[in-house]
From TrEMBL:
GO cellular component, one term: cytoplasm
Name by which UniProt lists this protein: BZW1 isoform 11
Pfam families to which the protein is assigned, alphabetical: HEAT_5MP1_2
Superkingdom per UniProt: Eukaryota
Signal peptide: none
Residue stretches spanning the membrane: none
Provenance organism: Pongo abelii
Chain ranges of the 5MP1/2-like HEAT domain: 20-116
Positions with biased composition (Polar residues): 1-19
């Protein structure tokens, strides 16, 4: 007869202070629209009022900034010049930019250039 008692596995010793590995899908990035706004407005002020330079900046920063996550904030910045507070007014304590639709000249050519 064969004894099945030898088939039991011995438990391996563990070290105290062991770190558990987390998967990338389990790591959550913090939602911080003010930091996103600061990065966008800083880039827009560096480019000036040239819409070609603004488009190049937005294309280049799209790889490192998450436009999908902060789409509402990006829309507020490009249209109104900053993040909107509840009620539709610009937040007073936030940074603002002059490269936006609300600060542009009110003629057809300028509006078409902003739309493109």
């Amino acid at each position: 007869m064969v004894s099945f008692m030898n088939n039991q596995k011995q438990q391996k010793p563990t070290l105290s202070g062991q770190r558990f590995k987390t998967r990338k899908r389990d790591e959550k990035e913090r939602f911080d629209p003010t930091q996103f706004q600061d990065c966008i407005i800083q880039g827009l002020t560096e480019t000036g009022t040239d819409l070609e330079a603004v488009a190049k900046f937005l294309d280049a920063s799209g790889a490192k900034l998450d436009y999908r996550r902060y789409a509402e904030t990006l829309f507020d910045i490009l249209v109104a010049g900053g993040m909107l507070a509840p009620g539709g007014t610009l937040a007073d304590d936030m940074m603002r930019t002059d490269v936006c639709v609300f600060a542009a000249q009110e003629d057809l050519e300028t509006m078409q250039a902003f739309a493109q």
